[in-house]
Amino acid sequence: MEMVRLRTVDGFTDDMFFEFCRVNDELKIERDSHGNIIVMAPTGFETGNRNSGIIAALYNWNQESSLGRVGDSSTGYRLPNGAVRSPDASWVSNERLARINPEALKKFPALCPDFVIELRSEHDSLPALKEKMKEYMDNGCRLGWLIDPEHGQVFIFRGNGTIALVDSFDAILDGEDVLPGFELSLSLFKG
Predict the structure, then answer these.
(1) Of 41, 98, 109, 116, which has the fewest Cβ atoms less than 10 A away?
(2) With pLDDT > 90 as the criterion, what percentage of the chain qualifies?
(3) DSSP string of 46-61, one letter each residue
(4) For the chain, where are the alpha helices, taking DSSP H only?
């Protein structure tokens, strides 16, 4: 199973979608900008282990910097275009979080993360993930990394519209001015 796309009915509110996700918490669920519900297959152990490494590195950097907060692959964001997306890892600055009602953070906050990572798993379509990364950028994300272990590549998406390719897992990714001092060694994704 790659993914299942379900159409919704008129009047299916954000609160109803949140409740739908809550009562089906064993599933990974997103919603596209047209209101369609997307149910995705869980990842395999290898992808889950790699994603744990990403979250650990990002979380540890954030503990030191205290510049924002980290979200894992279960964290949903309601983007300005109406989609609800759950990147594999995400980060939002304290400055932006201060503008959000604390009660809204208990659901899917209406904001796009400053930084996202999507880790391609064994059942993910690369073109679909590239579209998803473009959607994040179009909705205000400042930096995003699409990591493709199968092909040994990372696509770096920047808020200014540029996309760079890193084609060696001997490299170290840099958080640039979005995550100052954050580095992720791609050796985590070898073999």
Answers:
(1) 98
(2) 72
(3) HHHHHHHHHHHHHHHH
(4) 14-23, 45-65, 94-97, 126-138
- Count CB neighbours of 114 within 10 A: 22
Token pair for residue 178?
Answer: 């979005």
Size of the chain, expressed as the number of residues it contains: 191
Q: Where are the domains of the chain?
A: 43-189
Q: Which residues pair with 93 in a beta bridge?
A: 68
How many other CB atoms are found less than 10 A from the CB of residue 35?
16
Q: 82 in the Ramachandran plot: left (φ > 0), alpha (ψ -120 to 50) or beta?
A: left
C-alpha 116/C-alpha 135 separation (Å) is: 11
Cβ(173)–Cβ(166) under 8 Å?
yes
CATH H-level superfamily of 43-189: tt1808, chain A (3.90.1570.10)
Task: Give me the residue label for tokens 């519900």.
Answer: 37
Token pair for residue 22? 């809550």
For the entire predicted model, the pTM comes to: 0.92
Q: Residue 67: its pLDDT value, please?
A: 98
Distance CA 107, CA 110 (A): 9
Cα-Cα-Cα-Cα torsion 174, 67, 177, 183, nearest 10 degrees, comes to -10
Indicate the pairing of strand 77-78 with strand 68-71. unpaired
